[in-house]
Amino acid sequence: MDRQAWIAVTLCVLGLIGWQVYMTKTALPVAARSPMVAAASPAPENSAAPNSSPAATPADITASPVASPAPVATPSFAEKFEVLANPDIELRLTNRGGGISEARMLHQAGADGKTDVVLNAPNRLPIGSFLEQPSAASFREFTPTRLPDGSVQFERVTPEGVTVRKHFFFPPPTAAKDNFVVEMEVEIRNGGAAAYKGPDYFVGLGSSVPIHLRDLPTYTRMVWFVGGKARSTDVTQFAAQHYPLVGIERRSEQKVFQEKVSGAEWGAMSNQFFTSIVTPMDGKISEVWAIPFEITDADGAPLKGIEGAIGFAGFELQPGQSLTQHFQIYAGPKLYARLTKLPHDEAAIMNFGLWRPVSQTLLNFMNLLHSWVKSYGLAIILLTACVKGVLWPLQNKANKSMRRMSALSPKMQALKEKYKDDPTKMNTEVMKLYKEHGVNPVGGCLPMMIQIPIFFGLFTMLGQAAELRNASFLWIHDLSQPDTLFMIPGLGWIPILGNPITGSLPVNLLPIMMGASNVWLMRMTPNTGDAMQRRVMMFMPLIFLVFCYNFAAALALYYTTQNLFTILQLWQNKRQPAPVLTTPAPTVKRGKKGKS
């Protein structure tokens, strides 16, 4: 291999190593036993406004001063709980601010495969709790009551005679009912003798932490939906930021995120596969607030999370006047088919980004196939077959073009030797050669260019599709995670492949099969381009192996299946007669016959 090829390969490898070093520094270890929330260390609690209530018109977008969270005293009252449950979810309601302390997913196994997934850390903001200022003192105490219909009501009367009632209940049965949706009805009644002016207030969104080891830190985030788009801040946004290479600080560390927004429709806490979304049904959000926090598991391993709240404008009540507001709370897995049925574009929590149309199409089609075959592994294989079937004719033309390019290689090499001192002339003659023989030099690249959005759309979709969690296929226990067969201890230091958290090297079979099929495919592909290009391309299987080694097994399954279909197509194309290069006869232009 010549110097230029070595430089290209070295830069690719260094780039991958640099990415791994960055992710290792920013990624946050998760206890292997933790379902979603580890045993929390004491954490700051926030104040509840006893007289908080739904809001009016939101303010314009402006910068908001940010205050550091103040230390909080232990609540002076005993915490009491009530349980609200259905077949899919169990909500633990607390009198601390009148909200949801924990939301337990009854049919979603955690990272250890045994315990249930639990949304929200018990020592953080309860979901739906009222706060006058999230960075202030302790919560107010509400009195819980179990109503005859099984729902739960919290009540508190302020010294001014204002009664705040919060009613938690599951929606009545309908065709569109979702068991992960709970409603919170808030009633504020002024029973005092004077007008009451409520200040601006916040409603807690709860908290979020990663689920699995080596989760991307950008998965753990707070999201709000405003202006038809989902916006977010994640746990990486609070650390000090520096300019690359030079190391100069671009932005200092941020302890709290707080920002005015204009008419946001909902706010949410989210990790890779689960979310808690709070949607005010009668008003708009005027402010968002978030803070990172750290808890530890039983072994003392640190775990980084984020909690947040949404703000509303204040209100005024005359004596005897009341105000009622409804909130919809979705606390459950990010199942796209369910989220699309919610009324305020809650499906935007999926964060498909640039590849949204592709990701949505692939996810819907995969779920359709799963409804027929009852296996997500088979559904991914059938999805790959369908994609390959659509691209098969185009790939046939590309393979034919590559074979013609390969047949032209001797003539191209002769031109390069002849005009090696005149690159401009050489390029002119090479393009002339292509034109003479009707060869398109980029014809073999078109199918690959089309598959790029498919690959990244699938990668984005598989990174958040909760449908694949705990879905098994052959030896794979969980299609949403690497298909690790066993661990080799002491090799965690290996860049990108090794796991520095556990100190071991996972042996993932599907990515190895994917790399082997890539090598096989490269061997079958007709040789095009010069020697340096061919040598660099031979390193592509290694680069893809490293890139995909610790990603979801579903992605490796798709890519391996696609390679096998492409190998089959190349084998079928090679059985056809070899292309014969003939120079087209020159076109003779005939003039008009003159008059005699």
Secondary structure category: alpha+beta
Shape: elongated
Distance from N terminus to C terminus (CA atoms, Å) equals 70 Å
* Strand line-up of the largest beta sheet: 6-7-8-9-22-18-17-12-13
Helix share of residues? Answer: 25-40%
Radius of gyration in whole Å, from Cα? Answer: 30 Å
Biggest β-sheet strands, sense, barrel? 9 strands, antiparallel
- Total helical elements: 10
Strand content: 25-35%
**Multimeric status of the protein:** single chain
* Integer average pLDDT: 75
Which residues form runs of ≥5 with pLDDT under 50? 1-8, 19-73
Strand tally, please? 24
Structure in words:
- The radius of gyration is 30 Å and the shape is elongated.
- A hairpin with a 5-residue loop joins strand 6 (143-146) and strand 7 (152-157).
- Helix content is 29%, strand content 26%.
- The protein has helices spanning 3-26, 336-339, 356-373, 376-418, 423-437, 446-462, 509-524, 531-537, 540-548, 553-574; strands at 81-85, 89-94, 99-109, 116-119, 130-131, 143-146, 152-157, 162-169, 181-190, 196-198, 201-208, 221-226, 229-234, 241-242, 249-251, 257-264, 266-270, 274-280, 285-296, 302-312, 315-317, 322-333, 484-489, 504-508.
- It has ten helices and 24 strands.
- Helix 4 (376-418) crosses helix 5 and helix 7 packs parallel to helix 10.
- The strands form six sheets. Strands 6-7-8-9-22-18-17-12-13 form a nine-stranded antiparallel beta sheet, with no helix packed on it. Strands 5-11-20-19-16 form a five-stranded antiparallel beta sheet, with no helix packed on it. The protein has a four-stranded antiparallel beta sheet with strand order 1-2-3-4, with no helix packed on it.
- The model is unreliable at 1-8 and 19-73 (pLDDT under 50).
- It is α+β, with helices and mostly antiparallel strands.
